[in-house]
Write a structure and sequence with these properties.
Elements: H1 2-20, E1 27-32, H2 36-50, E2 54-59, H3 66-74, E3 78-81, H4 85-93, E4 97-101, H5 114-125, E5 133-137, E6 159-163, H6 168-171, E7 181-185, H7 202-208, H8 218-221, E8 223-227, H9 234-247, E9 251-255, H10 259-265, E10 270-271, E11 278-281, H11 290-305, E12 310-312, E13 328-330, H12 334-343, H13 350-355, H14 357-368, E14 371-374, E15 379-382, E16 388-391, H15 403-417, H16 419-424, H17 428-447, H18 455-460, H19 462-472
Parallel strand pairs: 1-2, 1-4, 2-3, 4-5, 5-6, 6-7, 8-9, 8-11, 9-10, 11-12, 12-13, 13-14
Antiparallel strand pairs: 14-15, 15-16
Bound molecules: ligand NPW and potassium ion.
Length: about 475
């Protein structure tokens, strides 16, 4: 606990310096719950008090950590037992830094209730310019530590100082956006070899990228077949094929009614059937488009018999066979996933999927066998062997029409380039899908850092994004 408290105090001191230029004389208010999480906050408070910080602990439970309380009092800090939420709100708002030590990994389901819940709700509703910086101890209090669920009020952290190793709830939606900057403090604890949820970094994505060898030719590099678009939605076909071409693949075949438009925009694309190493089904395909449905259904037979990897997006999700291999990747958003699950006898709404994205994606994986990439502010991928990836590199600007078509084309190109590998190693597909999500987000940044992006702009930024990723690895 001592090491945890020192690291936490250090993080709070850095926030004080950033806000006021110095640590001495800063005001820190600790929100303290009943367990060891509150104990960490109290011990850190004692360290800060000895560095000349004014520290007040608001005790939000009948009992708080005895040793921590004694340490803070001995260092000259104050402890106020909260029985009036108005007074607590007032004290908390006067802080430079608020330390959230209400609950950590011992939190039961159901979130914060009672006085602590009321206090947090009010503090979170008043986060204006001058509001205190919030540092969460181990986790923002009250999140579902193992599944990222949010079932009650949570104080959104600017920084979370977590101990031993990251926790799934810190990177999984919907709680992930409450974490702020994540700082992991190594306490030398023995941890499981494989973390439960993985977030790929740039170098991981670079390692997964299908880089051609010196003797590569277009067929060894992979051909991706794209069944997308219609007269009514020609843009989706252009975007998906463009992304596949620009991500770097041996060849792109297009099947559909707008081949003329696709070739006008991307002369590299070959129109018409032929052998492929991977498929992209569905962008811009509507359920009433009989010709495209037939093409997709026919191609699915190939997927089931020959075993080509495939990306199943948008309109093709409804055509998914009952069970498919793991190297088939579904790329729904929450609404599409709700429909897919409901069609398979698990009635859920879009809102329920948004509330429980991990549970929903897992269920879809179990029901279909496919790897499931659930699009969102944090993109989740669930694949073989229970692998879970949570990628959050994408700027919010990427939530724009056509962005999903680009992701589908990009992922199709990656799967075509690594077709043999993903068929051989079922766990690889989820990693490749997570890498595609990372590259997609990076390309959005590259296309216009910090500003609005277009789907076409994201596709056009792919070559530069991939080059930089490989160069830095
Ligand atoms: N373990 C380690 O390796 C290390 C752990 N460390 C630290 O310890 C923290 C974990 O401490 P912890 O186990 O004492 O749990 P914590 O989160 O403080 O809360 C438990 C208390 O809260 C109560 N309670 C629960 N849910 C509630 C709710 N919804 N509403 C109201 N009350 C609720 C619960 O009550 P009960 O369930 O017993 O009735 C119990 O009294 C961890 O996050 C980290 O900070 C690090 O210092 C070093 C390494
Ligand atoms: K906490």
């Amino acid at each position: 606990m001592e090491r945890a408290a020192f690291a936490l105090a250090g993080a709070v001191a850095r926030e004080l310096r950033a806000r006021r230029g110095r640590v001495v004389g800063g005001v820190v208010v600790l929100l303290v719950g009943p367990g060891n999480n509150g104990g960490d906050a109290l011990h850190a408070g004692a360290v800060l008090r000895r560095r000349g910080v004014d520290v007040l602990a608001l005790a939000l439970a009948d009992r708080v950590h005895d040793e921590g309380r004694a340490a803070l009092l001995a260092a000259g800090g104050r402890v106020l037992v909260v029985d009036d939420v108005d007074i607590a709100v007032d004290r908390a708002r006067g802080a430079d830094v608020l330390v959230d030590g209400i609950l950590g990994i011992g939190a039961r389901a159901g979130g914060l209730t009672g006085g602590a819940g009321a206090l947090v709700e009010r503090l979170d509703a008043s986060r204006d310019e001058g509001a205190p910086v919030v540092v969460a101890v181990d986790t923002p209090s009250g999140i579902g530590v193992d599944d990222g669920s949010v079932s009650g009020p949570v104080l959104r952290a600017d920084r979370t100082v977590t101990f031993g190793g990251s926790k799934p709830g810190l990177v999984l939606p919907p709680a992930a956006h409450l974490t702020g900057v994540l700082e992991v403090v190594d306490l030398g604890l023995a941890l499981p070899d494989e973390p439960a949820v993985v977030r790929l970094e740039d170098r991981d994505a670079a390692a997964l990228w299908p880089v051609p060898g010196p003797d590569a030719h277009k067929y060894t590099r992979g051909v991706v077949g794209v069944v997308a678009g219609a007269r009514r939605y020609p843009g989706a076909a252009v975007l998906a094929t463009s992304a596949a071409v620009l991500a770097g693949v041996g060849m792109v075949r297009y099947l559909g009614d707008v081949g003329d438009l696709v070739v006008a925009r991307r002369p590299e694309v070959v129109v018409g059937p032929g052998r492929v190493q991977a498929w992209v089904f569905g962008p811009g395909v509507s359920p009433d488009d009989a010709a495209q449905r037939r093409r997709i259904e026919h191609a699915f037979e190939g997927v089931l018999h020959r075993g080509e990897p495939a990306v199943v997006d948008a309109g093709a999700l409804e055509l998914l066979p009952e069970h498919v291999p793991t190297h088939v990747v579904l790329t729904p958003h929450a609404g599409e996933l709700a429909r897919l699950l409901s069609d398979r006898g698990h009635r859920v709404t879009r809102a329920e999927v948004e509330h429980h994205p991990l549970r929903s994606a897992r269920l879809a994986h179990e029901l279909t066998g496919a790897t499931v990439l659930l699009k969102g502010h944090v993109t989740l991928v669930v694949g073989a062997g229970g692998a879970v990836y949570a990628q959050a590199a994408a700027p919010a600007w990427l939530a724009t029409a056509g962005a999903g078509d680009v992701l589908a084309g990009l992922l199709g190109a990656m799967l075509a380039g690594r077709a043999d590998d993903v068929v051989e190693d079922p766990t690889l597909t989820a990693a490749v899908a997570a890498a595609a999500a990372l590259v997609h987000g990076r390309a959005a940044d590259v296309s216009n850092p910090g500003g609005p992006v277009t789907a076409r702009g994201v596709a056009l930024a792919l070559p530069e994004t991939v080059r930089a990723l490989l160069a830095d690895a």
